[in-house]
# Entry
Amino acid sequence: MSKGRRALSEEEQALWRRATEDVARRHRSHPHFLEPHPPLAPKPAFTHARPFSQNHQVSAPLTNRANEKRIRRGKVEIGASLDLHGCTYLGGRDVLQRFLERAHEREERTVLVVTGIGRGGEGVLRRALPGWLAEPALRTLVAGYATAHRAHGGPGAFYVFLRRRVSSR
# Structure
């Protein structure tokens, strides 16, 4: 008898024989036992096409004292909002760029970008957003950014302040 196992009673043994009487026994000569399964190929490590870094800096997140007060009080006038929930790292960056370009064309001044906070507050999109905003393609559109007020999503959302459009006269 194996360590930690109890012996089956006569009634349990009879029940087991009845349950297994029409089951064919598998022999060691079965092909399943003769050929080992091929080894699984190792999964390639995931690499990002655009590495994100914590070192990216955008111009001052809060442009002036008046903006800072408006943000603390949740009184920021939001022109448009974008929810990146469900986006992948690469897809989210492209969606963000198109959104900011359209908002800039409409002469919006402040937009809300919802990234979500992720598991444990370390969401991929949340960490990547400052780096994306610092890229040359978006840096020309963005004046700054700040974490949103609790009423607008708190740490899972950002206010993005857009630059004024340069008029071509």
Q: What stands out?
A: The chain has a mean pLDDT of 78. The first helix runs from residue 10 to 20. The CA atoms of residues 21 and 147 lie 68 Å apart.
